[in-house]
């Protein structure tokens, strides 16, 4: 059977992408790998693509962002085709659903409410609308609806935000810092006197409070950690470059030498002209 001409139309837009995915999933003429996939097997790729979008934004690589957004869009199309194959729902239902949600959640734009609200008031209104939506879905608990499959750090922040809405939160950042000191002490004690399972539990408690500190300081912990990862990568690669100038590799060095080179790399970042001198 010949391909639909739409598949080869360079300006076919969204209909073209939907047709390509339909063809890939065709039981008789599609791709064996695509045919075998289901929601669960594709989900890890969806998460990965979302992070690659965030990475391109972090690095301000706009041509990469265009490509990564396409990859992420493909994930939605893939899930939609699987759902259609199973008779669950179609792509148009996804589009109509999110469109309805956006209109309902922005009555100050699409309805008759006043737009002259502060960002804080708009956020409160948004949360009230979402709470009503959860109630309609019989999600009555404060923490209901926070997806279990979220990355742990992101889920921690979302759980804390939900609890904060009903007053379960420290009013001052200093109290969070005090709690961090308490959790560090408990981790030290567990490390010296307890089982590996208890040590892991205490470590988790510390990470959870660190996420809370990020929230109190209006910091995105995922973004902060990505920046820290990038900084570590950048500085360690500089250590490797400096060692290579002496004909050495990291495994030929030791901690003392590499720590000194780390300090040099750190100083160079603070004074860029030092590297070119």
Automatic annotation (TrEMBL):
Region (Disordered): 247-277
Any one biological process term the GO annotation gives: dTTP catabolic process
EC number: 3.6.1.8
Substrates-to-products reaction catalysed: ATP + H2O = AMP + diphosphate + H(+)
Database matches in Pfam families: MazG (PF03819)
Keyword flag Hydrolase: yes
Similarity comment: Belongs to the nucleoside triphosphate pyrophosphohydrolase family.
Keyword Hydrolase: yes
EC class: hydrolase
Source organism (scientific name): Roseovarius albus
Record-linked SUPFAM superfamilies: all-alpha NTP pyrophosphatases (SSF101386)
Residue ranges annotated for the NTP pyrophosphohydrolase MazG-like domain, each copy included: 37-110, 176-236
Record keywords, A-Z: Hydrolase
Entry protein name: Nucleoside triphosphate pyrophosphohydrolase
């Amino acid at each position: 059977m010949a391909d639909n001409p739409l598949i080869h139309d360079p300006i076919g837009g969204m209909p073209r992408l939907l047709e390509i995915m339909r063809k890939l999933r065709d039981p008789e003429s599609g791709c064996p790998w695509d045919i075998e996939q289901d929601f669960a097997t594709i989900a890890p790729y969806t998460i990965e693509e979302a992070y690659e979008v965030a990475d391109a934004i972090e690095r301000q690589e706009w041509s990469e962002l265009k490509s990564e957004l396409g990859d992420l869009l493909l994930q939605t199309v893939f899930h939609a085709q699987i759902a259609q194959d199973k008779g669950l729902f179609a792509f148009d239902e996804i589009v109509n659903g999110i469109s309805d949600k956006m209109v309902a959640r922005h009555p100050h734009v699409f309805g008759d409410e006043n737009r002259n609200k502060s960002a804080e008031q708009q956020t409160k209104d948004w949360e009230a609308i979402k709470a009503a939506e959860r109630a309609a879905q019989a999600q009555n608990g404060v923490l209901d609806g926070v997806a279990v499959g979220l990355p742990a750090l992101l889920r921690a922040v979302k759980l804390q935000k939900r609890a904060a809405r009903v007053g379960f939160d420290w009013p001052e950042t200093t109290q969070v810092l005090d709690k961090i000191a308490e959790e560090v002490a408990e981790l030290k004690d567990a490390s010296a006197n307890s089982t590996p399972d208890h040590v892991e539990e205490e470590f988790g408690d510390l990470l959870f409070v660190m996420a809370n500190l990020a929230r109190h300081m209006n910091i995105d912990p995922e973004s902060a950690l990505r920046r820290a990862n990038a900084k570590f990568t950048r500085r360690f690669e500089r250590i490797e470059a400096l060692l290579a100038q002496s004909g050495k590799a990291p495994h030929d060095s030791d901690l003392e030498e590499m720590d000194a080179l780390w300090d040099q790399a750190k100083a160079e970042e603070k004074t860029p002209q030092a590297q070119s001198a």
